Amino acid sequence: MAGFHTTDDLDAGQRLLVRIDVNAPIEDGAVQSTRRFERHAESIRELLDDGHALAIMAHQGRPGRDTFVTLEQHADVLSELVGEEISYVPSTFGEEAIEAITELESGTGVEDPGDAILLENVRMTDGELPEEPPEVKAQTEFVRTLANAFDAYANDGYSVAHRSHASIVGFPEVMDAYAGPVMADEYEYNTSVERREFDGDVTMVLGGTKAEDVIAAMDNLEDTVDTFLLGGVVGELFLRAKGHPVGHDLEDGPDLYDDNYEKNADLIDDVLERFGDRIETPVDLAYEDENGERAEHAVADVEEKTVSYMDVGHETVELYQPIVEDSAAVLVKGALGVFEDERFSYGTVEVLRAAGESDGFCVVGGGDTSRTVSMYGLEESGFDHLSIAGGAYLRALTGEGLVGVEALERAAERMDG
Questions:
Q1: Is the pTM value of this prediction over 0.90?
Q2: CATH architecture label of 191-386
């Protein structure tokens, strides 16, 4: 376990400043409830039942994007999931926020829970952005204003632990700091593949569009993973490196391949040379035909890429399934296709189904990939852990430290010293 303290170590009835991550899709102006909301609602419920009074911080979107909105709707979603009112405060450290924080009252337990408020989108706050060293963030007016108003800080947002923003790394520099339930749980499972011993083969299923991070994860886990099963953009890039005429952009298609390949060609070649016999790439790929139906090409038959490939094909799934089923551990990161479109969900769903029904240890990482499980009615109990983290999850797999975790560890050293 990491060298940080958790909220389980706290005495009941504290005033806590809590960072969560409920960054969500927005459709037609409405925030969509996601697994992140559900997981953090469990944490909030647990903290309130311990009598803690909570001022909650979160972000939504990035400046300049359509998803960069206030957290008013987020407070409503959380209130419904928690079963307690979480009041929205349209300020983070202004007068309105300070007044609301001052009025927070702790409780005594389940029958008398503490109060909770949700402060405004922290990315609308001066000092939150950009990424800067923790000691710089600790000196922002944002951090200096709020730090003295609470007994402790709790970071429950593992999925943003790779961001050196004020709400993540600034407060632990100047306050007693703890990992919340989601943070502790995510850290434990997402670092488990490198730390655990398994009685059998370890398999990684890798897909999605973030090729650079995925390839770095493969490179880092060469000595841990026995077989890599590829799909999505990264699968096509590896096929291109093997000499197949796929893995490049089409004139009328998305720009997903050429820049990625240019940046990573040397590393892909190096990985293939060092342990290519342990890397399985798709043998067929699915696309949308002229009638709007799913169709498939055998990779060996492709002489020129003329369509956008949206999923791995049935023969690839038949190749991957027994490898997954016979593994002692399976780690999944990234979808094998455009799973949101039911026509192209087959590869992702069926490989996940095989993982969930196997007897091995199984962790599924990345918010989108985890969403496939509930979207297509797979049995959640078959998976040891469904992570809500994306970028932080990949950082953990590549062996890079997470600044948010490191901030909690430094705080623990200071507190213990």
A1: no
A2: 3-Layer(aba) Sandwich (3.40)
